[in-house]
Amino acid sequence: MNNRLWIAIISLCVFVVCEIMLIRFVATDRERQVENKRYLALEQLSTIRARLEGLLQTNLVAIRQLHTELSLEPKISEERFAALTENLMSQNLHIRHLAIAYDYRIRLIYPLEGNESALGFDYRTRPDQLRTLHEAISSRSITLNGPVALAQGGEALIARVPVFDKDTQELVALISQVIDHYNLFNDSGLHSHPELSISLRGIDGTGEQGELITGDYGIWDANPVTLTVSLPRGEWALAAIPISGSWAPTAYANSLYFIFGTILAFLFSVLLYLVLRNQQRLRQAFGLISNQARFDNLTGIANRHFFEEQLTAYISACERRDEKFALLFIDLDHFKEVNDALGHSAGDDLLKLVTGRLQASLRRDDIIARLGGDEFVVVLKNLSEPFHAQLQAQKLLKHIREPMNLYANEVAIDASIGIALFPSDGDNFAELLKAADLAMYAAKDAGRGTSEFFNNDLREQATSNLHMHQAILQGIRNREFLVHYQPVINSKDGSLHSIEALARWNHPSRGLLLPKDFIAIAEKSGAIRDLGNFVLNQVCSDIAELHAAGITGRVAINFSSHQFYDKVAMDQWFQIMQQHQVDPSCFTFEITESMLLPDRERQRDLLLEINDRGVTLAIDDFGTGYSSASYLRHFPICLLKIDRTFVAGVPDDPHQNALLSALIHMARALNIDVVIEGVETVSQVNFLNMQTANLIQGFYFAKPMPLASLIERYGPSVKEKEPRAFNERRKNPT
Ligand code: C2E
Ligand code: MG
Ligand code: MG
Asked: Residue 550 needs a FRET pair 20 to 30 A away by CA distance; which of 11, 233, 458, 619 works?
């Protein structure tokens, strides 16, 4: 996914999050508004309730005063009653009339006008009235009933109170006060509230469960705020809802919020998108600038400036880790002519192609850069051997040299490479570059298309090494190499124990060369692998002849550390044996002590595998390395070959004698067979016989010899003569 799409997705997500937050905000704000409205409504309702309770109490003052009067004197004259009630009713209250009943019949009523029909009314004729009357009697206090239908028509609230004889406590009278509830409620503000619809229920003081007194039943089902109104006995319940019927704020207000919020969220997301886009463009621009500042535009590899940075950092690391490296200065030969002949774009293509070839021939962590024009530099990291830099330079030259196709022209270009080594040729960027540059000019002077070291000695050595390396490879191809065999003799009976294959080079001009003339350089240059494979191949094909001649002892083959510990190489050896149909049990592989030291676990696994496949393992030149008995126990070693330097002074030098017998005892203690190398004299043989070290390889018995000589000497035809031959050799060594 490209960055632009990512930014769009991020902005969209931010928009969605803003929307979710907005919805939540609108919802909580709505709840908050509802709560607020209910709270305000409750406040207003409690004001109404206070007014209603106040007006009721004020109205009931009349009945209370009359009750006090009658309690003192139950029989009251009509005039006194009229005078009293007139006074009580004059106070602009809601009293419609007051009445006194004796023996459940209304006897006195004021004002009489309009209420004549009630005079003489017997409560016992109206069971509903009688029931409330009895409640008042049994409670002995004021009760408030209604609204009830009056005998004289209409509806009103009726307050009642019984009067008892203070001595006998018998009911003597009943006082009723009829209150105009409609106006009472009006004056309390129940009917005309500007914001609230109010309802009151609880006829006869039955509270919230009672019948509706005024207002609408629907209010009670619309989640109203409620309050109770205290009556002398029982209570009423007040309920209120907004006139609109709902507590929720208008949808219009909510949508406004929402629309406004959405517009803001949208604008914010667009702004975010633009800011991020801008930032990304800036980052890309900075990236491009810093890329251009560090990398070469044409080839994409590091430029001079970045190369200096990288190399300076690497020099510090090498100083810390005590590592060596080589700096290769590569200059293309006759590049200008290609440019002039084929044009600049062809020249550019050529530089790109060369870069690709250089990159392909280097390890991933080597450094490569273009200094400008047709000059390249390469750093070969962690160099173990200066000669390897020379080999790598040759490899690069070989790749550069391969013809390339440029605008339908086949072009082959050469290069000159100068090699400077860290730390010997310089310990900083400038010095090393100068040295490599000078070396490059030396390569140009030497005829171009070649590589030269900055250091003179190295230059000479490298030239001869390189020649030797190429000569070895050529020699293998030309079948100039051969194998000689040296027997290992059991001095007890003179029998042949085994033989060692030793490489020889029949050099066309220098004659027969011994390993000391070519093994070291073959190891350095890597040609040892090819040479080793040649020896193994040769031995495999000779084994058939040896077996045919009755020589069946194992053949020892030498391996150097550069050949070993490579699983691919190992598989190749067994493949070679298989190709020749030779069993691995015909071989002993000789390795040196030093090869057992690093990375013990991995080596152990490899050696175990070799051993498991049937090849026995011997330690060659034993005693010249670490000679630590402890590590030997960890490896599957069957044979120790004690180096000839330990035999040299024997038996005349007592120190050498002691050393040699100590080594023999060590091998014996480890239960490993021991072969003594370099035995040249009869006194040495005698000394070894005394030590019962009978396996002997040395010129005393035989020098390394060609296969034919070996067969002639140790084949079946001479077998019968063996004891005699052995005795003869003891007197007259070869
Ligand atoms: P090495 O494996 O210790 O082989 C024994 C060397 O001692 C041989 O030398 C042999 O000629 C020499 N020698 C044996 N008996 C006597 C003696 O009584 N007196 C004296 N002065 N020398 C004796 P050579 O053939 O010159 O080989 C030298 C070394 O080169 C070998 O030492 C081995 O390490 C190495 N080498 C030989 N062939 C190969 C090979 O095919 N591959 C590898 N990697 N190394 C090889
Ligand atoms: Mg050997
Ligand atoms: Mg040896």
From this structure: 619
Peptide bond into 111 cis (omega under 30): yes
Give the Cβ contact number of residue 142 at 10 Å.
19
Query: Cα–Cα distances in Å, from 550 out to 498, 502, 581, 716, 724?
Result: 12, 21, 18, 6, 19
- Does any domain span residue 161? no
Ligand 1 within 6 A of CB of 705 = no
- Element containing residue 61 per DSSP (H, E): helix 3-72
Q: Relative to the CA of 680, which ligand 1 atom is closest?
A: 18
CA-to-CA distance for 301 and 299, rounded, in angstroms? 6
DSSP assigned state of 215: S
Q: What's the rounded Cα separation, in Å, for the pair 656 and 12?
A: 89
In sequence order, what are the residues at sequence separation of 6 or more whose Cβ sits closer than 8 angstroms to the Cβ of residue 732? Answer: none
Range of the domain at 383: 301-454
The verdict on 573 and 690 lying in the same domain is: yes
Give domain status of residue 617, yes or no.
Answer: yes
> Is the distance from the beta carbon of residue 684 to the nearest atom of ligand 1 less than 6 Å?
no
Greater pLDDT, 254 or 322: 322
- Report the nearest-CA residue for atom 12 of ligand 1: 678
For residue 255, which amino acid is it? S
Share of the chain above pLDDT 70, in %: 96
Among all ligands shown, which has an atom nearest to the Cα of 501?
1
- Tell me if 238 sits within 8 A of 45, measured CB to CB: yes
- Which stretches of 505-633 are DSSP H helices? 515-525, 528-548, 567-579, 600-612, 629-632
Cβ–Cβ under 8 Å, residues 368 and 318: no
Q: CA-to-CA distance for 525 and 512, rounded, in angstroms?
A: 21
Number of folded domains in the chain?
A: 2
Closest by CA to 372, choosing from 297, 314, 430, is: 297
* Binding site membership of 331 for ligand 1 (Cβ less than 6 Å): no
d(C-alpha 716, C-alpha 549), whole Å: 6
- Binned at pLDDT 50, 70 and 90, residue 723 comes out as very low
Torsions phi, psi of 124, nearest 5?
Answer: -70, -15
pTM summary value: 0.56
At 535 the pLDDT is: 97
Q: How far is the CA of 557 from the centre of ligand 2 (A)?
A: 7
- Asked if 392 and 271 touch (Cβ cutoff 8 Å), the reply is no
**One-letter identity of residue 412:** A
Nearest CA to ligand 1 atom 37: 502
